[in-house]
Every structure is written in C-alpha cells, then in structure tokens.
Amino acid sequence: MTLADLQSHVYHELPMLQRTVTGRRTVYRIVASAVRHWPGTVLMQCDDGEAQVVGTHFGRQLERIARREYGMGIILTLVLSAVISEIVKVLIRWWMERHENQTAMHCMTLQMRGSHD
C-alpha cells in the first residue's frame, strides 16, 4: 500500500459530513502528517484498549501540528479536532487489522521521515 492508497482509504472511511466539510486535500494532508509521526513502536505493544488511549494522545499531537500549520480560529479548530479524531480512529483500526498493514505503515513512516529530515 502506498501513502496515496492510505489517504484514499481514510478519506472514504470518514463520515460524509466530515469529508464534505474538511475536503479531500485537508484530509490527505492530515493523513500524511499522521504517517510521518506515527507511534508505531508504542502501538506494537498495545492491545485494542491501550491503542485507543494512544490514539487519543496522538490525535492531540496532530491537532497541535495542524494549529501551527493552519493558524486557525476556535471554530475551525473544533471542526478539525473532530476530523483528526476520526482519522486517527480509522488509521488505528486499519493498522490493527493485519500485520501487513503494520509493515506498510512502517515503510511509509520511514519514507516520510526520510523525505523531510
């Protein structure tokens, strides 16, 4: 799976309202940021419940990154916060489904980090 495949998968898994309000481009940018900062090492040690806790904290990290990147007001922050939360849930669910997904995410994370460092 490529980053583009994952971005498309996440976009189509989001509720219609969130897709419409946020837009494909923003969702794709958030997914790319999530892949770049993915906490794979921590998640490898988690069961489903623990992964949800990690996901909550990871979502907050992505919100801070998005606020710096977009420099937005309170309303947009609330909207983006809800979308980021859903994106993280989709990514964690996908990641935990199969070992192949974990391997794919690991490869994408290494590529993203390598292309920006």
Can you offer a commentary on this structure?
The mean pLDDT is 91. This protein has helices at residues 3-13, 16-22, 24-36, 40-43, 48-70, 74-97, 99-116. It has 117 residues and is an all-alpha fold. Helices cover 85% and strands 0% of the residues.
Q: State the distance separating the first and last CA atoms.
A: 23 Å
**Average of the residue pLDDT scores:** 91
Give the amount of beta strand, in percent. under 5%
Structural class: mainly alpha
Biggest beta sheet summary: none
Helical amount: over 70%
Low-confidence stretches: none
Radius of gyration: 13 Å
General shape = globular
Write the H/E string, N to C.
HHHHHHH
- Quantity of strands, as a count: 0
DSSP summary: helix tally: 7
TL;DR?
Helices cover 85% and strands 0% of the residues.
What distinguishing features does this structure have?
mainly alpha, single chain, globular, 117 residues, 0% strand
